[in-house]
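Thread: Newbie trying to understand structure tokens

Hi all, I'm a second-year student working on a class project, and my supervisor (Dr. K.) asked me to get a predicted structure for one chain before our next meeting. I've only ever worked with sequences, so writing a 3D structure as a token string is new to me. If someone could post the tokens and maybe explain what I'm looking at, I'd be very grateful. Here's the chain:
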Amino acid sequence: MKKIATHRRSSVKRVTTLMAQVVNVATVIHRSPFRYPGGKTWLVPRIRQWLKSLSPAPHELAEPFAGGGIVSLSALFENLVSKIVLVEKDVDVGAVWKVILNGDGARLANQILGFGLTNESAKTLLAATPTDDFTRAFATIVRNRIQRGGIIAPGASWLNKGENNKGILSRWYPETLKKRIDAIVGRRADAAFIQGDGIEFIRYNAHRSETAFFIDPPYTVAGRRLYAFSELDHKRLFKAAATIKGDFLMTYDDAEEIRNLAKEFGFQTALVPMKNTHHEIMQELLVGKNLAWVTSPAPSEVSRESQPQISAAATG
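---
Reply by user tm_fold:
Sure, no problem. This is what the structure looks like when written as tokens:
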């Protein structure tokens, strides 16, 4: 492993890019049934750039920390890849993907459409212990829709006033959810779900040159608050990523620990802006083998407020 890292340090430049352009997420089609904290809808235009830059084009996109799966779903529906693999450790989130992709998605969509959501019905539903994947999946969707920020980790609170004082109904769109789930069901032959550890998945599938990996792990700062499974050995993840034969794109918070790991393994980094739930512009870090595509002209969904400020330095 050390020889691999040393070789990459000597042959790869680290690119640090501050793109002064923010994606207008309203222009990106929302394909996931989840409201996912840390979701990557804002990154979809950049994902298109990344996948289109790869030659040969990848046959498959794997997402080892799938969560809401917006990146993989977007890539599949836009025919940027032929297959996707979603990997998730969280049993609640995993239950949703199991049900949708393994044959009971239409039933889940109809259950959502017919559910009369009130404070009382939600309390009754969420107080019950799930008896199978289907009941767990339905409860997870409801919880995801009525809790602040879509957070389903223990301790998350319900929406209070919400939009226009609608309370928990603020994010309950049964017709829209049904359409999204039905659409995914229509492509389920091209999608697979694996319940398990994302790093182990990378380790066992890194040799597959026709597979690109989108790696969006729990972040170093906010992970504990947002996710049930937030603890992660970041260096172990970077070691696994270093063995990937094809290409990968990793996203992180801009933390010194992550920058140091990227430098250690000879990966490139680029800063891109995004808006958080409070509409504040924040910087997120992209990590990859070759991020030259990041400096290419911005996609149409990106607002062009100023020119990128780019700097590059060789790693020693």
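A couple of things are worth pointing out once you decode it. The two ends are 18 Å apart (CA to CA). Residues 92-189 form one domain. Feel free to ask follow-ups in this thread.
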